[in-house]
Each structure stands twice: as structure tokens, then as C-alpha cells.
Write a structure and sequence with these properties.
Blueprint: H1 12-28, H2 34-43, H3 47-56, H4 64-71, H5 76-86, H6 92-110, H7 117-130, H8 137-143, H9 151-176, H10 181-188, H11 207-226, H12 231-248
Length: 250
């Protein structure tokens, strides 16, 4: 149903345009959800340390510098402080396993009434399986995490992996477009600059034009992944993404 020689009704770029923002919102919605924070507290980690170790720990028990290089947008001093203090309580790989459970549980909470999850999962897995891991360590780590069997939990975990896929490709594209990641972050999310450990970040006059280039290059890297979807797969993927995004927004 998902992969075949049939030409898709939409281009890969159109599929990405229709789903990228929603996938980003879906995949981030469990980060600081009350249930996730509670699991972190039980394990001895506050919300930010659980977030950093949980996301970065999919790459294994790496040091803070490796984690920061994969996140990209954070102040390295902040990452070092939180990472090094966090792993005194829980190793990065242990935190990743815990966070992965949080992701599945968030899907179970949010997607109980969402239909079409089996078809979405088939499409999402096809895209992920078609993606090249080279140069995308955070995505590679997330894609290596075991998926749960139940559809709500599995669908959510797949959306998280897809978020890391685009995020990893976009970070590389931002650098190739000549943008310092913290400047890209300030341009897209000025209200979150301080949360990421920065005080004053100057956005250059040409940042907007460079960000357009970065988005185009991100799509170019990911085009081969989304091209594996046939018309039925595209429909299932877009419909599932929209339904999941709506459920997460409640």
C-alpha cells in the first residue's frame, strides 16, 4: 500500500509542507506534559534535565559536547551544566528509555479516539525506513529505539522519530546556509531564547533569506524519504498527522 512504482498524487515537498509543522508540534507535546514531568520527578530529574537527557540519550551515554552538537540551538554552557548534573542521577541511556515510555504513554492518553492510526503507522515507518542516517545522529538514535505494539503509543513514538528526522536535517541545513543555530532559533522562536540559555542574540538582516534556503535544503534532503509514499500512503499520513495534531492540541 505504501511503497510502489505508482506516481504519488502529491509531490514529496507538498506532503512535507502539509505535515511538517503539525509533526513538530505533535512530537514536542509530551516533553513537558504533566505525566512526563511526574515520571521525571519519580526518577530524580527535573523537567529540563529529563528533556535533555531523554532526547539526547537515544545516542547512548555520550558526553555533553556531543549532546549539544546534536541539539544545536542551546547554549553549550547550559547543556554542560544540566547534562553533567543530570547523569549523576540517571544515565543518559536510562533517561532515554524512560522518556520513550513517556512518549508512548502520551500517545495512549491523547490518541484513544483517533482513527486511522494503523495506516498512519505504516506510512510513517515507510518514511523512516527510507531515511539515510548519515550525518543525522539524533534521528539515528531515535529511530533505533524500540516501538511499542499498541497503536496509540506506537503512532506517537513514530511522530517523535519523524520530528527528530526533520530537526536533524534542518540543523545541518541551517549551518550549510551560513546561519549560526542560535540566530536561527532567535529568528523562529524569539520568546524561547532565554529558555535555551541565551540572553542577547542578534538576528542579521539576511537571516530571513538564509532561512528560506535552509528550509529548501531540508526538504531536498528529505525528499527521497517521503517519495516512497504512494497516493494511499500520502492520504493516510496526512490524515493521521492532522488528527493527531488536533488531539494533542486539546
Amino acid at each position: 500500500m505504501i511503497v510502489g512504482a505508482k506516481l504519488p498524487a502529491m509531490s514529496a515537498s507538498e506532503v512535507m509542507s502539509a505535515t511538517a509543522s503539525d509533526t513538530g508540534n505533535i512530537g514536542a507535546s509530551f516533553y513537558f506534559a504533566p505525566e512526563s514531568l511526574a515520571k521525571g520527578t519519580d526518577a530524580g530529574l527535573d523537567g529540563m534535565r529529563l528533556y535533555l537527557l531523554g532526547r539526547g540519550g537515544v545516542m547512548g551515554d555520550v558526553n555533553a559536547a556531543v549532546a549539544q552538537s546534536s541539539f544545536g540551538y542551546f547554549n553549550p554552557e547550559m547543556i554542560t551544566k544540566m547534562w553533567d548534573s543530570g547523569i549523576e542521577t540517571l544515565s543518559a541511556s536510562e533517561a532515554a528509555a524512560l522518556y520513550w515510555e513517556c512518549a508512548a504513554e502520551h500517545g495512549r492518553v491523547k490518541f484513544g479516539d483517533v482513527t486511522g492510526l494503523a495506516e498512519y503507522c505504516a506510512a510513517a515507518e515507510a518514511v523512516i525506513n527510507a531515511a539515510d542516517r548519515d550525518g543525522l545522529p539524533l534521528f539515528a538514535g531515535a529511530a533505533s529505539m524500540p516501538l511499542v505494539d499498541d497503536l496509540p503509543g506506537r503512532a506517537y513514538q513514530l511522530a517523535v522519530v519523524l520530528r527528530e528526522l526533520r530537526g536533524s536535517a534542518h540543523l545541518a541545513a541551517v549551518r550549510s546556509a551560513g546561519i549560526v543555530p542560535r540566530e536561527a532559533h532567535a529568528y523562529k522562536r524569539p520568546e524561547m531564547v532565554e529558555m535555551f540559555g541565551w540572553k542577547d542574540v542578534t538576528v542579521s538582516d539576511d537571516t530571513e533569506a538564509k532561512m528560506v534556503i535552509a528550509e529548501e535544503r531540508t526538504d531536498a534532503v528529505l525528499e527521497c524519504c517521503y517519495s516512497v509514499l504512494d497516493e494511499a500512503g500520502e492520504s493516510a499520513f496526512i490524515a493521521g498527522t492532522k488528527a493527531m495534531a488536533a488531539a494533542c492540541a486539546v
